Amino acid sequence: MKKFIRMIVCLVVLFSVFNTISAKANSKDQKLVGVILPFSSAFVNIANEQKNAIELAVKEFDDIKVIYEDSKSDEAGAIEAFNKFTNMENSPFAIISCASWVATALHPLSAKENIFHIVIGSAIIERTQPKHTVRFTLDANQEEKQLANYLIKFNRIAIYNMDNGYGNNWKKTIEQNLSDKIVKAIAYNPQNKDFKDDLAEIKKANPDVLVLLSAGNAAIIAKQARELGITAKFVGTRPIERSELLQEAQYTDGLVYTYPSYDRYHPMIAKYTKEYGNPPTVFAVEAYDSMKSLLTAAKEGNHSTEALFDWYAGRTYIGALGEVHFDENGDANYPYMYKEISDGKFKTANFQYSLLLENARQEINKIFQHIDQDVKKTSEKLSVYGLTGKEVNKALQNLFERNEYVYDCTTIDAKGIIKNVYPKKYEKIIGADISKQPQIARLHKTNEPVVSEAIDTVEGFLGFDLEHPIFDENGEFIGSLSVLTEPNFFDRIISQKVANFPVEMWIMQKDGTVIYDVNEEEIGQNLFTDEIYAPYKSLIKLAIEMSITPHGSGGYSFLDKKLDKTVEKKIIWTTIAMHGTEVRLALAHVKDDF
Ligand code: COI
Ligand code: CYT
């Protein structure tokens, strides 16, 4: 009997335990969202801005409740706030939180509690759990690549960063990529008001640029730095665009920083400005998009963590941030650009167009020069070995393996017949007569190295051929050594150079042929003669000017990046020249994007 009672008690206990577990897992309020913001902290202005923007988004939906909790200034505060939500009898179906350190602290907890989690204002997150957390902020690694493009021109970099999960991790990222240039790095408590001692240390290191990984504090820091006689350029990141900086414009003037190029014409921007008296920063823009997208997903019937995560993953969401692409991990990607403080305002930095164009030109040039020197050296070797045979095979293979942008290497005889090729898999082109290709004719005439224009190669694609003549030991011309660039040669270089900037680059030959564009359909088309360009008179006029002028700028109207609608574009161009062939490298951006 005793045994029986014990068994019953056991069962009852088990049952009730099971019941509370399952009750807890199920009792989510599908109308309730929890929001955790750093109200009692140095970032109170950011928190208030986010709250305002969230209220705007919520107004567009019926019957939604939002509860705000204060994460205060650190991880402990955030966890306390999170526990308040999960201990509720009817807990929120989703939680939105701000700040990198909060994101990293709450990410494993939201997975454990199986609650859907959105993070905003979080450039850093240490992800350990799949499929629970969606992030609206671009990762610091991405932003840093863009910032580094600018920082690289300085020689003595000092870093002054907030001592938290944002500042410390961002600093590490810069250190990883530019370590040999860093002369000083100090972390500061964001609650401080006096930074003079640290700044005196920084001054001693004599930096030519001071990177401030800061929010509104940057205003006082800039003031105290200038008063101490620090003349270094100020450089910042996304959280630095705070109104405090304009109040100290005489000290912050010239600050350059990376920032999202969000949609300035989105109705949310005007609505926010009207409602709250100040224009929003990207913190509000992100907060608005996060809440609006979440409530849209919920309205479509998604409430479980899994369904919500899947709604975002792989999606391109169009909101106030512009076009936001979420990858499979739940991380957002969207364009950033350079901004600067000038004339007391936050402005799009004009230098970015020429900087990006020049960087791309130099990169393409450097690769061409490198290949060119290698082809030259190899062609000299072949004066002993000739055009075929074991040694030639080896030389072609080595040349190929040293140059990642090369599609194949060939030897061509004095009549213009291909004699040998590496890789061997293309051997069916051996014997092809390419004497009619203009660069071969030119090489035969001058016996000088050549670079072709875009040619229909015997390999079967539109390619570029770089050739050096081969002379035998008596100085007789016996043929040439050729390398063909990969079909995606320009794309591989340029897509990296414009990555995440709201600009596009294209390349035109002087005869009007488009030899590179993000739209593959355009490659090989001629701007002067092809039908798709005919309706765009301003573009044709510009192309004519480009064909006769090595450097310049202008404007035209044409289809946007996705060939959807006609937009006004601004453009600058420059020239890449190699062995008598010139092409125009152009950078264009939509006027309205800034
Ligand atoms: C970030 O962590 O990415 C932020 O922007 C946090 C902000 C409160 C400074
Ligand atoms: N192919 C090649 N012309 C071609 O068509 N490999 C060199 C030159």
Structure report:
This protein is an alpha/beta fold and 594 residues long. The protein folds into four domains: 30-139 and 265-333, Rossmann fold, CATH 3.40.50.2300; 141-261 and 338-349, Response regulator (Rossmann fold), CATH 3.40.50.2300; 357-485, PAS domain (Beta-Lactamase, 2-Layer Sandwich), CATH 3.30.450; 502-593, PAS domain (Beta-Lactamase, 2-Layer Sandwich), CATH 3.30.450.20. 39% of the residues lie in helices and 26% in strands. The protein contains 18 helices and 27 strands. It has a seven-stranded mixed sheet, sandwiched between helices. A five-stranded parallel sheet has the order 2-1-3-4-5, with helices on both faces. A five-stranded antiparallel sheet has the order 17-16-22-21-18, with helices on both faces. A hairpin with a 6-residue loop joins strand 25 and strand 26 (566-578). The protein is elongated. The protein starts with a helix and ends with a strand. The model is unreliable at 16-24 (pLDDT under 50). Bound molecules: 2-OXO-4-methylpentanoic acid and 6-aminopyrimidin-2(1H)-one (CYT).
Short summary:
With 594 residues, the protein is α/β, with parallel strands linked by helices. It contains 18 helices and 27 strands.
Q: What structural keywords apply?
A:
alpha/beta; Rossmann fold; Beta-Lactamase; 4 domains; 5-stranded parallel beta sheet; 18 helices; elongated; binds 2-OXO-4-methylpentanoic acid; binds 6-aminopyrimidin-2(1H)-one
